Amino acid sequence: MPGGNPAAWPHVKEIFQAIAAKVDGSPCCDWVGENGAGHYVKMVHNGIEYGDMQVICEAYHLLKDGLGLDAEDLHDVFADWNKGELDSYLIEITAEIFTKKDDDGAPLIDKILDSAGQKGTGKWTGISSLELGVPVTLIGEAVYARCLSAMKEERVAASQILTGPKRQAVQDRKAFIEDVRRALYCSKVISYTQGYMLLAEAAKDQGWNLNFGGIALMWRGGCIIRSRFLGKIKEAYDKNPRLTNLLVDAFFSKLLNDYQSSWRRAVVRAIEAGVPTPAFSTALSFYDGFRAARLPANLLQAQRDFFGAHTYERVDRPRGEFFHTNWTGRGGRVSSGTYNA
Q1: What's the CA gap between 215 and 57, in Å, rounded?
Q2: Which residue is catalytic, options 49, 188, 232, 234?
Q3: How much is the pTM?
Q4: What's residue 171's pLDDT?
Q5: Of the residues 14, 34, 42, 254, which is catalytic?
Q6: What is the DSSP letter of 96?
Q7: Per-residue burial over 81-94, b = 16 or more CB atoms within 10 Å of its CB, e = otherwise
Q8: What is the pLDDT of residue 341?
Q9: N or C: which end of the chain has fewer CB within 10 A?
Q10: Where are the beta strands (DSSP E) in 96-153?
Q11: Where are the beta strands (DSSP E) in 91-157?
């Protein structure tokens, strides 16, 4: 993901593309953009990687604790998933992880401490999203999930005090596994959508001319997030180079419309079983928020104007006109300024 001075690219292009991973003969390395565009795209790639890993972990948790699958069963499920639309490096290695045995013959996965580390790129992605006002909620939850996992001693102590629901047997095992698969896929779509929203806003802010379809091509090989799914992103931008959001592309909108019932059932089942699924849940909330023509922010604006005279816009007046109401009859006519992310 090289960026910087455009004059430098011709001098190193042949070398970089020769040593890069190839997919269908095309190198997974190309010019990204001016200044820090390459570093920024790499950062978002890593943030998406955090999200991908978290949604896979939530699927694992649901299947293990919500359905009672052992390591051998989990290998079979993930290996099967890797043959279809979830085909990816991370799904592939996850299936392989479940086959590894410890010296005593027990699955190694069950011996690994559940306290995750991180190097910071997911956090940087979240910070940038807040600075630019882009709701990259799934990557944020993926970072926070790692933070919560690191509170191991506190969680162990809390587990002796705090109770959860009694877990009930799943009636249709095959249907449940498919619901989890679809929930994982839908959540993955939301994660990449949010990542691309952040790239678009950063490009606007920095004056970069990013090739969004080309970025997906760069990520198809040699990257942790390489997957079949990235080809669909490339196709979306090939069809419409001015695509404003992946969710309005015909392929992705149909997928979410078709799969959302399974997605909702998986999240409901997780809540009923007491299995935390922060990424699945925030992805679904984002989907419902993005498709809502009207959100309750009108009440939020009324509250802000009530206690701080922060003003609001009206649905029956042009955008950009701000109003203040003397809600109690005791306030004055002076209004505060407003800030829009």
Answers
A1: 26
A2: 49
A3: 0.93
A4: 86
A5: 42
A6: H
A7: bbeeebebbbbbeb
A8: 61
A9: C
A10: none
A11: none
Nearest 5°: the CA angle 208, 214, 215 is: 70
Confidence (pLDDT) at 329: 84
Contact 110, 71 (CB under 8 A): yes
Instruction: Write out the DSSP string of 109-121.
Output: GGGS-S-----SH
Q: Is 42 a catalytic residue?
A: yes
Task: Read off the pLDDT of each residue in 35-43 and give the average, rounded to a whole number.
Answer: 94
Work out the percent of the chain whose per-residue pLDDT is above 70.
97
Q: Are 1 and 45 in contact (CB under 8 A)?
A: yes
> Which tokens belong to 330?
């005791």
> Vertex 200, ends 301 and 191: CA angle to 5°?
80
Rounded to 10°, the helix 173-206/278-290 angle is 60
- Report the DSSP pairing between strands 33-34 and 3-4: parallel
Mention every residue, 6+ apart, whose C-beta is less than 8 A from residue 22: 28, 221
Quick one: pLDDT at residue 49?
A: 94
66 vs 144: CA distance, rounded Å: 22
Residue 115 has pLDDT above 80, yes or no: yes
Cross-strand bridge partners of residue 3: 33
Average confidence (pLDDT) over 300-306: 95
Q: Which of 3-7, 232-236, 281-285 is the most confident on average?
A: 281-285
CA 294/CA 192 separation, integer angstroms: 24
Pair 42, 197: CB distance under 8 Å = no
> pLDDT tens-digit profile of 89-108?
999 999 999 999 999 999 99
- CA 166 to the chain's CA centroid: 30
